[in-house]
TrEMBL record:
Name the UniProt record assigns to this protein: 2-succinyl-5-enolpyruvyl-6-hydroxy-3-cyclohexene-1-carboxylate synthase
Residues in Menaquinone biosynthesis protein MenD middle domain copies: 219-401
Species for this entry: Halobacillus yeomjeoni
Catalytic activity: isochorismate + 2-oxoglutarate + H(+) = 5-enolpyruvoyl-6-hydroxy-2-succinyl-cyclohex-3-ene-1-carboxylate + CO2
Keyword field: Magnesium, Manganese, Menaquinone biosynthesis, Metal-binding, Thiamine pyrophosphate, Transferase
Gene: menD
Associated pathway: Quinol/quinone metabolism; menaquinone biosynthesis; Quinol/quinone metabolism; 1,4-dihydroxy-2-naphthoate biosynthesis; 1,4-dihydroxy-2-naphthoate from chorismate: step 2/7
Length: 578
């Protein structure tokens, strides 16, 4: 069998098995050595291919698709440093539990480590940030079923023990162009690897009953839901909270602040509340039952650490893990969170349990909400930029949030709403790189997407805008431009003015209007709240890229937030909450 036929059968069976195993999208970074993969993906009518010129942005674009759809997405590049540009997105995907199939083409073994051009050591180059790695065999006659097995296993490994990237390194010899006119390619009768079947991990009836017996007598319970993407959890966890009579501290990425589920027990202002030492002391629970990752709120983390010895902590996770950065002695419960809530709810009386503990939290939450949402008397500020954005968001849409200050402002100012809005962010490694591309990837599902981010994050991924122009992906971007890194103003570095601006403030000083125009977008710089609201509404009628620039003052940002937290504490004190 000649080389071209061998190569073609090997790669077509590999790609076809990925499609059969459920992969629907592939993002391709152009290059030569990856020609067999790129052409085969483009030829297969069962998968949609996306081409991105910048590898770093391409990887984050794939991450966004996989995050939004909760399905593996393939990512293809040529040999050499192209794969190194995938590294930041691979790290983020690993820590945020997003399945990616990273397929790096490589030189054949005889061209490795001999000074051949565009050849680097790609063996296990992503280290421990993948669930599985394989350096695949070179295409040889009769290895098409081997290729299928590797493809099928790659999909399985990307989903267990928890969703994460896998890395397959595929060496190819020249010539690299497949011949799709050959007979017997693609799927042959009985020649596919069957999909794996996965059941639900649940507690035994005895384990569930034991947990209820332990917690039910304790009246001061607390459910906490951190960042997570399972939309089925909202109904079940709020039903459990209602039957237990406990508050639910809902992180903005918990998917609990939005949607039509019962929100009577939802506490969205807990970060502002826990800034007060008085409230911290009044609101200590008997136990905390947490779902999802650790919440964004630093005030919550410090509060948990402060009460480690007096509060029982339980962390429910569908995968074996130790996601407890507070360093407390928590008990991990490895089970499906939705099924766990159902099991416990079935052993509790139907109806709503109301008590003084729940009323305390509900009253404090309402008071805090009233203070946080007071009509702004100041000029444009980050907090009310979130408030008015939440009002304007379309039904059935996505809100993607940048790190540093934007996600914290969403935590503070995005209140519960019945709207169907998914709120997402890259909170695995918490980086500011690739945010534009990740948001664009999340937008390809058809849900109108809004990205809220700062000027430094926007600058970091301007190349990501190319995909919006190339594929005409509708996206509204709200850029909070305070000309630098606003989050550093909250840190001790601000007390060293001789070096602060250069090393930490990092003013960008870029006219974003010209950049947005280069990528075919509509740029609007607003100077009032009326102009901001108008720009938001107009952006949602446009089918392309709209960038709204909200210019704020970095120096005023800290004072604004501290005043809000102080007003919350004073309002609760004046109302005599005890």
């Amino acid at each position: 069998m000649e080389h071209v036929e061998t190569l073609t059968r090997y790669v077509t069976h590999f790609v076809d098995q990925l499609v059969y195993s459920g992969v629907e999208h592939v993002v391709i970074s152009p290059g030569s050595r990856s020609t067999p993969l790129a052409m085969t993906f483009a030829e297969h009518n069962g998968i949609e291919h996306w081409v991105h010129l910048d590898e770093r942005s391409a990887a984050f674009f794939a991450l966004g698709m996989a995050k939004e759809q909760q399905k593996p997405v393939a990512l293809v590049c040529t040999s050499g440093t192209a794969a190194a540009n995938y590294y930041p997105a691979v790290v983020e995907a690993y820590y945020s539990r997003v399945p990616l199939l990273v397929l790096t083409a490589d030189r054949p073994h005889e061209l490795r480590d001999v000074g051949a051009p565009q050849a680097i050591n790609q063996i296990k180059m992503f280290g421990n940030y993948v669930n599985w790695y394989q350096d695949l065999a070179l295409p040889e006659p009769g290895l098409h079923m081997y290729a299928r097995r590797q493809a099928a296993r790659a999909v399985d490994e990307s989903l267990a023990p928890h969703p994460a990237p896998v890395h397959l390194n595929l060496p190819f010899r020249e010539p690299l162009i497949p011949d799709f006119s050959l007979p017997g390619l693609w799927r042959e009768e009985g020649k596919v690897i069957p999909r794996s079947s996965k059941g639900i991990n649940s507690l035994s009836a005895e384990q569930a009953e034991s947990f209820i017996e332990r917690c039910k007598p304790l009246k001061r319970g607390l459910i906490v839901v951190g960042p997570q993407m399972d939309e089925n959890l909202a109904d079940e966890v709020t039903r459990l909270a209602s039957r237990l009579g406990v508050p639910v501290l809902a992180d903005p990425l918990s998917q609990l602040r939005t949607g039509d589920h019962d929100k009577r027990n939802i506490i969205e202002n807990y970060d502002a509340l826990l800034k007060s030492e008085t409230i911290q002391e009044q609101a200590v629970p008997d136990y905390i039952l947490r779902f999802g990752a650790m919440p964004i709120s630093k005030a919550y983390l410090k509060w948990v650490q402060r009460n480690e010895d007096t509060v029982d902590h339980y962390i429910v996770d569908s995968h074996q893990s130790y996601r407890e950065p507070a360093g407390i002695a928590a008990q991990f419960i490895e089970t499906d969170p939705v099924e766990f809530c159902r099991q416990l709810s079935s052993q509790l009386p139907e109806g709503d349990e109301r008590n003084e503990w729940l009323s305390l939290w509900q009253g404090m939450n309402k008071t805090a909400k009233d203070e946080m949402l007071k009509e702004p008397e100041d000029p444009l500020n980050e907090g009310h930029a979130v408030v008015f954005l939440a009002d304007a968001l379309p039904e059935r849409s996505n809100l993607f949030v940048g790190n540093s200050m934007p996600i914290r402002d969403v935590d503070s100012f995005f209140m519960a709403t019945p709207k169907d809005v998914r709120v997402m962010a890259n909170r695995g490694a918490n980086g500011i790189d690739g945010v534009v591309s990740t948001a664009l990837g999340s937008a390809i599902s058809g849900r109108r997407t809004t990205l809220l981010l700062g000027d430094v994050s926007f600058f970091h991924d301007l190349n990501g805008l190319w995909m919006a122009k190339s594929k005409n992906i509708p996206l509204t971007i709200v850029v909070i431009n305070n000309n630098g890194g606003g989050i550093f103003s909250y840190l001790p570095q601000v007390n060293h003015p001789d070096h602060f601006e250069e090393l930490f403030g990092t003013p960008v000083n870029i006219d974003f209007a010209q950049t947005v125009g280069m990528y075919g977008g509509i740029h609007t710089k607003v100077d009032s709240w009326d102009a901001y609201r108008k720009a938001l509404m107009e952006s949602y009628t446009d089918e392309g890229l709209s960038v709204i620039e909200v210019v704020t003052n970095r120096e005023d940002h800290v004072a604004f937030h501290k005043q809000k937290w102080k007003s919350v504490e004073e309002a609760i004190s004046n109302r005599g909450v005890d």
